[in-house]
Every structure is written in C-alpha cells, then in structure tokens.
TrEMBL record:
Domain of life: Bacteria
Keyword Aminoacyl-tRNA synthetase: no
Alphabetized InterPro entries for the sequence: AAA+_ATPase, ABC_transporter-like_ATP-bd, ABC_transporter-like_CS, ABC_transpr_LolD-like, MacB-like_ATP-bd, P-loop_NTPase
One Pfam match: ABC_tran
UniProt keyword terms in alphabetical order: ATP-binding, Nucleotide-binding, Transport
Keyword set includes ATP-binding: yes
Taxonomic classification: Bacteria, Bacillati, Actinomycetota, Actinomycetes, Kitasatosporales
Listed GO MF terms: ATP binding; ATP hydrolysis activity; transmembrane transporter activity
Gene Ontology cellular component list: membrane protein complex; plasma membrane
Protein name from the UniProt record: ABC transporter ATP-binding protein
Residue ranges of domain ABC transporter in the record: 18-255
Length: 257
C-alpha cells in the first residue's frame, strides 16, 4: 500500500453506515477468470463523503455495485447498518435496496413520460407506499427544484435532471447514497452544483455518500478518497486538494506502487 495508510482521525468518527469485509468479486472461471475485487475491507462512517478513484478497470464500479447490493460478492460480506447483505435472499435484498439505499448514475435514468414529482415519488410507489405530496415537494426543494415539480425530463437541463434523480434517491431517506460518476454527463459548472448539493447533504443532514469518480476536482468535495488498483485498496487521502489527488492519480496510472 502506498501513501497515507493510517488515518487516525478517520477511525475515530461516527459509527459505520456501511462496512465491506474482505470482499472479493470474481467474474468467470478457469483461465478466463477476472478478480475485479480482491479482499477489499473498508468502513464508511455515518455522515461522511467518500470518493472512490482508480485507473480504468481497477474495480470501482464493482465495489459500488457490491456495496449497494446490486451485485453479490464471491466471498466476504457487506454490512449496512448492522444487516449483512450477503445473507439476504433476493426478495429481502430488493427491499433493503429500495428502502435503505439510494443510487444516482451518470445517466439520470428518469422516466420521460413522468413529471419531476412523479419520478421522485416512484420509489415510494414501488414500495407500495402512498407518497405525500408535501414530502415529494420537500425533497424537490432540497435540490433546488421546488418550481419544476410539473416539468418532464425533456423540459429540463442535464443538471436539473440529475437533481431530480438525486431527489428520487433521497425520497426514502436512504442510509447510504451511492453515486457512479454522478456528474460524468454534466458540464463542469453544472457538475459543481450537484457536488455542492451532495456536500451540503453530508454537512447539514449527516447523509453518508459514496461516489465513484475519475475527476480529481469532483473527488476534492469528498472527505476521503479511497484509491483502488487491480481490485485492491491502494491507499487513502483525507481532506485532499484537487491538485494532490490529480498528482496521486497520475502516479497510480503511470506505475502503481
Ligand atoms: N460482468 C463482468 N464480466 C466480466 N468481467 C467484468 C465484468 N464487470 C467487470 N469486469 C472486469 O472487472 C474488472 C473491474 O471492472 P470495473 O468495471 O469494476 O472497473 P472500473 O474501475 O469501474 O473501470 P472503469 O473506470 O473503466 O469504469 C475489469 O477487469 C473488468 O473488465
């Protein structure tokens, strides 16, 4: 492991919203098997913002998918608020994902025929709950779109659509919010606005956020950056500047230590 290896302050934070314990994810078998994650152990304290970075193919998306219960590790466990996801059957895992985890992707994945408020209310409807209009409005206000509730995705900018996707992820008040390149499809100014929103949710509401990104400036909004190389944790940085993160990434991409 290179770089800072023991970050004492980090270990003394709030209790963990999520833990990965020796998580391995292998694809395929025999000679063509790929180990996308190799015994990864990580803790994510409540109310913190973590960015996951690493060269292409280092296992970032696989880590996020396993942590969010969208994929199952080959071995190891993922514990969300005391529940071991790897021990749940499909039905219980689906319920947990629906009620306790939020996800935003690079592509906003909004339903084009629904208005912003209908898109935001969807997770509650899928869970068989009747969404209160006030609750939907409140979360739309939270992302600065109180005045766009009746607009459809095609009537909104990319940044506005991503904010609707954020509101949709937040409507269930998830314990952990995951983002897979959430600003990847946005111009840099709009991307910054979404990152500021995420930062604000962590600071004001104690939201736990875990985000994969390639962009050092985006990662600098996080409290901590975890670096992956070849499916293993290669080090961490806490409170790092975009320049320091970029330097570290350049070194990792040139010659991982
Ligand atoms: N469904 C799959 N089947 C086989 N191999 C896979 C599958 N998904 C990922 N991999 C392999 O696992 C490794 C990690 O992939 P992953 O997508 O997690 O990396 P990444 O860091 O997110 O990459 P990128 O930055 O390019 O998106 C890669 O070698 C990839 O080819």
């Amino acid at each position: 492991m290179c770089g800072r290896t023991d970050i004492e302050q980090w270990g003394q934070m709030n209790k963990d919203a999520i833990q990965l314990r020796s998580v391995t994810r292998r694809y395929g078998s025999g000679d063509s098997a790929v180990t996308a994650l190799d015994k990864v152990s990580l803790s994510f304290p409540e109310g913190t913002f973590t960015a996951v970075m690493g060269p292409s193919g280092s296992g970032k998306s696989t880590l996020l998918q396993c942590a969010a219960g969208l994929d199952r590790p080959t071995s190891g466990s993922v514990v969300v608020g005391g529940t071991d996801l790897t021990k749940l059957n499909e039905t219980k895992l689906t319920l947990l994902r629906r009620e306790r985890i939020g996800f935003v992707f690079q592509s906003f994945n909004l339903l084009p025929s629904l208005t912003a408020e209908q898109n935001v209310a969807l997770p509650l409807r899928l869970a068989g709950r009747r969404p209160a209009r006030a609750q939907v409005r409140e979360v739309l206000e939270q992302v600065g779109l109180g005045d766009r509730a009746r607009h459809r995705p095609t009537e909104m900018s990319g940044g506005q659509q991503q904010r609707v996707a954020l509101a949709r992820a937040l409507i269930t008040r998830p314990e952990v919010l995951f983002g897979d390149e959430p600003t990847g499809a946005l111009d840099s100014q709009t991307g910054r606005e979404v990152l500021k929103l995420l930062r604000g949710m962590v600071d004001a509401d104690g939201q736990t956020v875990i985000m994969v990104t390639h962009d050092p400036v985006s990662a600098s909004y996080a409290d901590r950056i975890v670096f992956l190389v070849d499916g293993r944790v290669n080090g961490e940085m806490v409170g790092a500047s975009a320049d320091d993160i970029a330097t570290r990434m350049t070194k990792l991409e040139a010659a991982p230590c």
